[in-house]
Amino acid sequence: MSSTRQDAWSQDEDLLLAEVVLRHIREGGTQLQAFEEVGKQLSRTAAACGFRWNSYVRKQYKSGIELAKKQRKELKLQPVPSETMAAADTEQPKSEPAVLEKAVENRKISFASVIEFLEELNRKAVSQEGMEDERDKSIEKIKELEKKTYYLAAENERLSKNLKAIEEDYRSLIEIMERARKMVVLQEEDKQQKVKFQMDKNGNLERVQK
After folding, report:
1. CA-CA-CA-CA torsion for 134, 118, 46, 55, nearest 10 degrees?
2. SS3 for 85?
3. Tens digits of residue pLDDT in 119-143
4. 208 phi and psi, to 5 degrees?
């Protein structure tokens, strides 16, 4: 049984990393800023967070990334109220309520997105469990087929040896039968040649035994 590495990422840490990165993408921040933020919360380096995101987590949130980019574009296209623009031109402190209102609005979008991401993560987890079950079943089936293959190969080898032995016995039997047939033919010919006739002095035929 393999032990868990001390630097292994948990599911909650992956979720936090995804939430922070997607929020930065949605709000126009950089991924490096997101990695630094997550690193401080998890006592990890920004490089470790970046590596985890690019090697694993990012692949699990392709649809979430597209949604965050879309929301970022929508936020950029939102018109700025004329009163807020006027206040920004005259007195900088007067624009703070508008900035806070926008921040609250962004936070609402963030919470809604997080809920969506959690639901998507749950669906993927359920799907992954089903895939793992199918994989385990496939592995067991492969092992059974391998055992049957080894058994059939051994049985084939045994039958091949038996067939070869039978063929050798058959050839030996044919040779024995052929030798027996030749002996019978020779014996018949020998019997026929044992009786011979010849003429005596008086011109009569007489039988001569060989």
Report:
1. 30
2. helix
3. 888 888 777 777 777 777 878 878 7
4. -115, 130
